[in-house]
Every structure is written in C-alpha cells, then in structure tokens.
Design goal:
This protein is of the alpha/beta class and 346 residues long. It has 10 helices and 10 strands.
Amino acid sequence: MSQLILGIESSCDETGVALVRLPADGGVPTLLAHALHSQIDMHQAYGGVVPELASRDHIRRVLPLTEAVLAEADCRLADVDVVAYTRGPGLAGALLVGAGVACALGAALDRPVLGVHHLEGHLLSPFLSADPPEFPFVALLVSGGHTQLMRVDGVGRYELLGETIDDAAGEAFDKSAKLMGLGYPGGPALSRLAEQGDAAAFKLPRPLLHSGNLDFSFAGLKTAVLTQAKKLGDQLEARKADLAASTQAAIVDVLVRKTLAALEVSGLRRVVVAGGVGANRLLRAQLDAACARMGVRVHYPELHLCTDNGAMIAMAAAMRLQAGREVPNRDYAFDVKPRWPLDALA
C-alpha cells in the first residue's frame, strides 16, 4: 500500500509544504502538490533575514499552506501517513515552528513523524525532476549558507570531499551585492546585473583554486570586491555591471573547477548540483559545457525547487523510508539541530 508523506520546511525565510506519494512497489516517489511562501518582501526593509520575524511568519503561513496542498492533491489530512519536517540545520526559532507543527499534527492524527536534514533535502531534490540522477554521483551543494562537495553512493551514504572554510558561495554573492548597493536578496540581483557587464573587466582572486584540495574560501573575494569598489569611488555606479560580472565569474570559476577536480578524485561520471545558487545561469552553462567535454552527466533540481521548499523535505523523507534508513516514530517530543553536518547523517 502506498504512503502519503507531508513535508514541512521552515529552516530560514521560506515556508514550504508538500505532499509526496511513496509507492508500495518500490518505484520512484512522486510529488502530488506543493506550496511555498517566501519572506523576501518582509526582510527587504532590513537588508537581510531577521530570525524573530521569520519565525513569526512561519507560524502564520504553515497551516494555510498545508490546507492549500491538501486541496490541490485532493486529499484529506486524515489521508497523511507520515509527517516530515526540517530538523536542521537552520535558524533555531524557525526550525522549531515546523517541528512543533509537524509533531502536533502527528499526535493529533496518531501518525508517525520524521525529522529531515535540510541539506539532504537539497541533495535529493534532483530526484523530483524529469531527469533524475542515479547513484553514485558527486554532489555540489551550493547555497546561501553552505558550499560542499560530497560523494554520494546512496541515500544516507555521504562522504565529504570538500567544503568552504569561511563564507559560502551564496554569501559571497549576497555580501558582494550589498557592497555594490544592490539590496536584498543580493545574489539574484547581482546575477541579473552581471548579464550587462564585462566579466573580464576586473581581475578578482579565485581563492584556494590551486590549494591541492577540494575546499573553498570566498571571504577573500568579498574583500577584493570591497577594495575594488572603494578604488572606483564615484565611478562605481557606471562600472557596477562590470564589477558584478567579474565577481560572478570568479565565484562560478571556482565552483566549476573544484567540481571537475572532485570528479577526477572520485572517478565518478555524474554530478548533481543542488541549493539556491544551483539556479545561477552562468554556473549551469559553464558546468554543462565542461562536463559535456568530459562525457559527464549533470543533474539539477527544477528551477522552482532550487530554493528551500517542502517538496525536497517530503522527497528526502520518502527516499529514506524506501531505503530503510529511517523508521518514523510516534515520540512527539522533538528537538532541532541548527548545526548538523551532513556527513554525520547515517
């Protein structure tokens, strides 16, 4: 008998809810419906995410979104078999909202609950696409708070190959955008502006590109952008598109070349890119071209599923259950893990 899994995501500034069907025959889980609310408009006035406001907004949104998802899937709440939620990493207060609601629903329905790792949700999100990957593969997890290269041999079988030692790639986008006065959220704004500029206009550093390992560092790049912006002074406005293009080129160059190095080290011939920065057009174009030359397959989540969402949480829960990696429980006492290394996941 198939199972319906309700997934709730509330780790930062997006509230996501989704319903996934896990078939009884071992087939691929399917997404029935999902709904998402972004808090971008609310946080814009502050230039970044305000944790307390984020938590309060999750409280307002999660139940209406759940009702919308059930209606779209033509299901009742009583039809849900498992309630999954993001346990971590993320903002503690925001995580507690999703965990509290999920465990309350589980207790009210007498259904088991399952806490999901946020990054595992991103990692497995390409399985929701029309062209899902096959294990094993190299994964580039690249978002506002995380930049990691992983070897993935199966669900729950993850080996960390390299990670950022300071800022993540998404932070480099956002902080550089802020230095240029592009507002919040900075990354998408910088990428749009970069399309009008000359990527070769400024010579910016590619940190750790020749380090001999697969780690990343983007704090030095941010400092270089600040230095260049100060040098430009009154000319910054006229050269802003060129600086944005040069910044984006430096970040993407590092991501692509480190990913190719991870393929060489691992000997694998398949790449999965996940996380919000995975939607970046230049990253996709350059990685696709480089991997095509090597005969390597590249997989991405659908564009609308690159950011945080409930679909990836429900999908990760379904795949963990299917792989026998998880047994959902009816212990409705919960905790959250704001810091939770992915490679520590069994």
